[in-house]
Amino acid sequence: MKFCPKCGHILVPKKIGNKVYLVCTACNYRRSAGREKIAIVSNIPSNKRHKIGVIEKGSRREISKEERESYQEEYYSVFLDTYAEEYEESEE
Fold first, then answer.
1. Domain presence at residue 4
2. Counting Cβ atoms within 10 Å, is residue 24 exposed (0-12), middle (13-18) or buried (19+)?
3. In a domain, 14, yes or no
4. What is the span of the domain harbouring residue 50?
5. In this predicted model, what pLDDT tens digit does every residue of 5-64 receive, in sequence order?
6. For labelling alongside 84, which of 13, 17, 22, 65 has CA 20 to 30 A away?
């Protein structure tokens, strides 16, 4: 994290043209980011988060009927939880 030498606020990365600058949002001070590594992090609000299923690629082994039913029950449970969350959010 870098801070503005003029006012002490945090400098945020901003692309201007083809270059990346570190810019102070308070006093508009800017300096070239040069070759510094910059990580841009953003927070996702809870109402925009979604649960997703992940299918792993790997060896194709046969699964038993009980295991398949267990996966289906788990998938259905996650589906119902997600649906309930979205329904509650739409009610608000």
1. no
2. buried
3. no
4. 46-91
5. 999 998 888 888 888 889 998 998 999 887 777 666 667 777 777 777 777 666 667 788
6. 65
